[in-house]
Design a protein that fits this description.
One of its GO terms (biological process) is L-alanine catabolic process. This protein is of the alpha/beta class and 497 residues long. It is built from 17 helices and 16 strands.
Length: 497
Amino acid sequence: IATRRGLPKEKMSENGVLSRAKVLTIDTMNPTVKKVEYAVRGPIVLRAVELERELSEGMKKPFSEVIKANIGDAHAMGQQPITFFRQVLALCSYPELLNDSTFPEDAKSRARRILQSCGGNSMGSYTASQGIDSVRQDVARYIERRDGGVPCDPDDIYLTTGASDGIVTMLKLLVCGEGATRTGVMISIPQYPLYSAALAELGAVQINYYLNEEKCWSMDISELQRALDEARRHCNPRALCVINPGNPTGQVQSRQCIEDVIRFAANERLLLMADEVYQDNVYAEGCQFHSFKKVLFEMGPEYSDTVELVSFHSTSKCYMGECGFRGGYMEIINMDDEVKAQLTKLVSVRLCPPVPGQALMDLVVNPPQPGEPSHDNFIKERTATLSALAEKAKLTEQVLNTIQGISCNPVQGAMYSFPRITIPEKAIQEDKGQEPDMFYCMKMLEETGICLVPGSGFGQTDGTYHFRMTILPPTDKLTILLNKVKEFHQKFTQQYS
């Protein structure tokens, strides 16, 4: 019967046990999953882990440690947690500590408030699928303060498992159609690979629009129009994604740029997705974070009453760096009521976001206030973290620009630099099996222990090559890293000239 149906035959093993062909094979699995790629944890990172293991086993290398600058994992790079946040989370996790006199009273009162919002006064209970009501109220008040009084309805807030969860959830709502009617989503190039990976998995069409490297990775409306017009020939563009401040490029978009993008989305009937997880990470003089929502509402009812906007924030970046707690939120603006009901249904399938992440999100949007015992230390720690990042952003740009064959735009914000590298033609021809910047970064890893991500993993203009590196390592280790990059690039260029 199996043979008649075209199924693999059963086989008899050497010991006489019947062996059945596997149900799930590389040929029978979901084909869209095979198209998913995620550069920041790709082959270079796997090799970096192998090298760490080899070093621990005593194998001799040209370096004594692997320095990973491939991912924005702040605490893994040595950034210290905010004391108040960890105190409250400790109290929530183990309420017996509420009797401990070493914890400040404002941390205890915050913990009690969070626990009272949890079923059975325990963070181990499920919450509402949209998130804890009191946390969503605090998020709404935070947005109102941030945006100068623009109203925010807690019912438009959805707490999420990091920003990534919210982004993928929105893409799920958007994707439909087949062939020429298939949903297209506009994403910036270079882009954060979450977007390309999610679109591949969902079977949507990725529409690339290119940031202008010569103008510090700015957005260009004529480029958006070009990408949109070309895409409409083979798909149905429905959404425009913007990352501001930028990942991997570290730029901060101007208010004028955001206005132009909103007008473009309105004129072309596109839903806007604003990834704003780095909103506190702004370093360059003259740069300022402007939320898409604030600009939208300042443009008046013609736009604020019609443009569909979803914005995202996270506990993983900024001065917090609490990646592992997976906290975040998204705010929806002008969403159709029936679609909103479907969104609520969709998030209910996963029951609720992690409760510690929800609690942490509450602390981020409602930190210690002036006059409270923890306020001064909170401000001191927050300021120190952001100041250190600003110094490292400047250091990274300065050192990279001293290297002949490397050029780096100012790191205006976020946690990354995305310098352009000149690769000799001989090196480009060296290995046809991989991208030239992958060859470059892999060779750097093997020779120096520095783990960077090739620009090809994020997308780049044809004929240009880049790498992405975080600015997160401590200053002394970042200095070592940058000097090793300099030495390697000079040696690499000489070797292949």
